[in-house]
Specification:
By secondary structure, the chain is mainly alpha-helical. The protein has a domain of about 50 residues. The protein is built from 4 helices and no strands. α1 packs across α2 and α3 packs antiparallel against α4. It is elongated and about 50 Å long.
């Protein structure tokens, strides 16, 4: 019984993580005038996606504006030009 509850909790957490990541990628795309696929590729290329994946829990508690700015700073420090 406990294993089933743990699986449900992990599934819920994974769903929340994926929903937040999609939300922020969309916000990033709008902020930097890209479409969503281009924003995804940019974030993947310059480490923003890794940062988002690792730090999503802390980022989701902040204002989306600041989360996007933090991700931008990570990308910029990894060679991103926008």
């Amino acid at each position: 019984m406990a294993a089933t509850e743990n699986k449900r909790e992990l599934d819920r957490e994974m769903q929340n993580k994926l929903l937040f990541m999609a939300f922020i990628i969309s916000k990033f795309a709008r902020a930097y005038k890209m479409n969503n696929p281009k924003a995804y590729q940019y974030l993947k290329k310059y480490g923003g996606l890794d940062y988002l994946n690792e730090c999503w829990w802390a980022l989701h508690t902040d204002n989306p504006y600041w989360a996007v700015r933090d991700i931008y700073k990570v990308c910029r420090s990894n060679g991103g030009l926008r």
